Amino acid sequence: MKHLAFTQEALAALRREFDEAFQTLPQQEDDTLANYLLLQVSGIRYAVALRQVAALQSQSRITRLPSTHPALLGVCGARSELLAVYDLGICLGHAPCERHPWLARVAGTTLAFAFEHLERHARARAASRDSGRSHVVTLDDVGTLPLLDLHQLARKVAGASQRPPNLHPEEA
Amino acid sequence: MFDNWSFGRKLAAGFATVVALTLLTAAFAVYTLKDVVRTYEGALEQSQRSLNNSMRLDTYVENHIAASRGYLLTRQQRFLDEKAQLQTDVERLLGTMRQGSTGPADLAGIERAWAEYLPASREQQKYASDQITHERMTFAVDELRPFRQALRAAVDTLVESKERSIADVTAKSSVQVRTATATLAIASVLATLLAILLATLLTRLLGRQVGSAVAQIQSSSTELQAAAGQQVSGLREQSTAMTEVTTTMNELLTTSRQIAESARQVSVLAGDTASGAKTGDSAVERSKAAIAAISKQVEQIVTFMLELGRKSQQIGLVLDLVSELAEQTNILAINATIEATGAGDAGRRFLVVADEIRKLADRVTVSMKEVRTLVEDVRGAVSTTVMATETGAKAVDAGSRQFEELTRVFTQIVELVKFTTEAAREIELSTKQQASAVEQVNIAVASVAQATREGESSSTQTLQTAVQLSTLSKDLVQLVRAGAAT
Predict the structure, then answer these.
(1) Which among A56, A105, A115, A119 is the top mutation candidate for probing chain B, defined by the most B β-carbons within 10 Å of its own β-carbon?
(2) Looking at beta carbons, which residues of chain B come within 8 Å of A26?
(3) B333 close to A (CB below 8 A)
(4) Would you call B335 and A50 a contact, using CB atoms and an 8 Å cutoff?
(5) Which residue among B334, B341, B351 places its CB closest to the CB of A51?
(6) Is B334 in contact with A55 (CB distance < 8 Å)?
(7) Distance between CA A48 and CA A35 in Å, rounded?
């Protein structure tokens, strides 16, 4: 099989693109496009708006805590802050995942959702509503994906845990 | 003694006896008839001669008397000559008759009458004259008449006597013939009775002997017929068996020839194999060296492949490192994008860099995926090659050991080929001898089969002869014994 990365043309194209990135003017950002993260939970693809994500971490060490909330995995440290980590799959109604290598901190909260697989970053048109009135994101290569509202999930989780989601240690 | 005589001798004796009796009877009859005939003929001849003489005498006398009359009438000399001749004839005839069967008693009268007549006749001659009268004639005749009558009477008496004699002879002959006939008849009857008795005795004796012999012959012929039949069936079975044996021998001969040919071919092949084995021996040595070199090369390959495997694992580690860097770069780029977005306009330029970094990270990630795939393929190929090489090395080792074993076996094979070649040659020779022996056996079997067929034919003829003999014996028994059964 002829691998694209290992052809002379591909190598030359790679170098050219990188060099051109310094030579050309930055492209005006298309305001109609938004940044999304594509991830998989229980084998299902979802899109998450990047603006709802405060930080993205991998291989974070989660300290297990006993809890009545089925989705709470525990806590982990992130830049001197302690985050509550919840299983995104359980929050979406899927089966619990065995591994949670990725953490996505919800913007403006001390809550993070753990999931098993991050595909990539993508820019796409703003989310729209499908026939079921759910928000979806349409990408050229993968098609239409459901859009996760992390803030809504955070509020749901917070409501379920009967503790305010934006609870800072000083305010606890 | 008679019992020890043969059948032919007994028959010959019987027939000889019958013939003898017949001959004896015939001889007796012939003798008797001859005797009778001789006696009858002699007597008859003698009587007939006597009668003829008597008749002649009577004729002479009558002629003499006639001559006397003639002279008396004619006075011719011839009558006198005739009278003299007649007188001579009468006297000679009387002499002859006297010497014959006519007795002196019968001639005495005639001689006496003749003696008395002659003078009277001479006396009568005196009365002859040229002119004799009837009365003188009559007187002369009358004067001679008593003498003539006496002579005639004597002649008649003689004739009658002869006739009586002939009758007597005839009567005697008839009696004799009857006697002979009776005797002959009696003898014939006796002979016939004797012959019948002899035939009966002989028939019974021979019939008993013949019957006994025929019965034995019949029994023997029946046994012979049975034996011939068994012999025929046995020879027929033997002939069939010999035919089958002949067929089998032919097949065996064909097979032997095929085996001999195959043995010859095997011998040739063994020779070729031996030559090939010698040639292969050197090839084995070269192959041995080549395998050793291959084994060494394979070991080197294994070593290099193992090294290649380790290197590919290191490449994998490098890829893992690069992938991790790309992923971390991507994460940092995402976080940078997040921070740049959160920074607003101040983070816009940083957003560009973050975007480029993110793109670079994506490209690296994509490339790393492909590289990883390739490296995995390479590692897989290397592992496969290593395993294959190890397997090959093991195979080479095993092959080398097997080749050594093969060499050893080949050496044994070479030795065995030598033995096989010798054995094949011996087998070829033996099979040739066997084929020759089979051919000889086949010829002998064919001869035996031919003899069997001839024996069968002879037995068949013997059987037919036995059947005919049995039939003949039955017919003979029926001939010998009235109503004899088998």
Answers:
(1) A56
(2) 349, 352
(3) yes
(4) no
(5) B341
(6) no
(7) 9
| CA distance linking residue B367 with residue B370, whole number of Å | 5
Tens-digit pLDDT string for chain B (486 aa): 777 777 778 788 888 888 888 888 888 878 877 777 777 777 777 767 777 877 888 888 888 888 888 888 888 889 889 989 999 998 898 888 888 755 667 788 888 888 888 888 887 777 766 666 777 777 777 777 887 788 778 878 877 877 777 777 778 777 877 887 888 888 888 888 888 888 888 778 777 777 777 778 778 878 888 888 888 888 888 888 888 888 888 888 888 888 888 888 888 887 888 788 788 778 888 888 888 888 888 888 878 888 887 887 788 788 888 878 888 888 888 888 888 888 888 887 788 888 888 888 877 777 777 877 887 787 777 777 777 777 777 777 777 787 788 788 778 877 887 887 788 888 888 888 888 888 898 888 888 888 888 888 888 888 898 889 888 888 887 876 664 444
Could you say which of A3, A18, A29 has the minimum Cβ distance to residue B374? Answer: A3
Instruction: Using an 8 Å CB-CB cutoff, list chain B residues near A14.
Output: 363, 367
Q: What is the model's pTM?
A: 0.40
Which residues lie closer than 8 Å to B49 by C-beta, 6 or more apart?
B100, B101
CB half-sphere exposure, B179, CA atoms < 13 A = 11
B23 HSE (CA, 13 A, CB side): 6
Q: B352 CA to chain A: closest CA distance, Å?
A: 7
